[in-house]
Write a structure and sequence with these properties.
Number of helices: 10
CATH superfamily: Aldolase class I
Strand order of the largest sheet: 1-2-3-4-5-6-7-8
Order of helices and strands: EHEHEHEHEHEHHEHEHH
Number of domains: 1
CATH architecture: Alpha-Beta Barrel
CATH topology: TIM Barrel
CATH class: Alpha Beta
Number of strands: 8
Largest sheet: 8 strands, parallel, barrel
Length: about 220
């Protein structure tokens, strides 16, 4: 694995939330505000469309020294030489992804319960995306596949059980971020809280500050 620590503010792209602004522009503002990791997740595009857009984000991320993770698609990871991939439980199996990408790429795995988290850790995942911690009704309306809220207890359980970074995801915002981090998360993954904001840079800065205050942005 590359020597990259996954922690602090982790942003997940969603062009549907970005108020018509170019995705690369919003991502750059998020990084300027303090985002430490960017995950590219735009499932509505063709693979070629994803590659073109991911290349733009790759340039932005490299300029700021921030890792770019691609959601699910190994072909896009290879085409743009992204830093890694994030896989759900129903995506490409972890072992297969590792064979394809090699040891030099980051592989993150989504986990909705303790068993999934431990299995991913033992299988060689580099970090976990645990949640959804909370369920935002607005997000659920546009993403009906979002699971039931797991709550903070799962974060605490997973953190005690595994030896890799734990990133909490699902309905996290500046009002509840500190509680999530205090439960044991190494970082927080957000889409809505940054991409839907009229000022993504400021929104990211507020969340990154909370991460720093909780000692999770080092």
């Amino acid at each position: 694995m590359k020597n990259i620590t996954i922690s602090g503010l982790y942003v997940v792209t969603d062009s549907a939330l970005s108020r018509g602004r170019p995705l690369a522009e919003v991502v750059e503002m998020a990084i300027q505000g303090g985002a430490r990791v960017v995950q590219y997740r735009e499932k509505h595009l063709s693979e070629e469309g994803m590659i073109q857009e991911a290349r733009m984000l790759r340039r932005v991320a490299q300029e700021y020294g921030v890792p770019l993770i691609i959601n699910d698609n190994l072909q896009v990871v290879e085409a743009v030489d992204a830093d890694g991939v994030h896989l759900g439980q129903k995506d490409t199996p972890l072992a297969q992804a590792r064979r394809i990408l090699g040891a030099g790429k980051i592989i993150g795995i989504s986990a909705g319960n303790l068993q999934e988290a431990i299995g991913a850790w033992r299988g060689g995942a580099d970090y976990l995306g645990v949640g959804p911690i909370y369920v935002n009704r607005t997000v659920t309306a546009v993403k009906p596949d979002v699971g039931e809220a797991t709550g903070l207890e799962l974060i605490s359980q997973v953190k005690k059980a595994v030896g890799i970074p734990v990133i909490a995801i699902g309905g996290i915002n500046r009002e509840n971020a500190a509680r999530v981090l205090r439960a044991g998360a190494d970082g927080i993954a957000v889409a809505w809280a940054v991409f839907a904001s009229p000022d993504p840079r400021k929104a990211a800065e507020q969340l990154a500050t909370i991460c720093e205050q909780e000692g999770k942005n080092s």
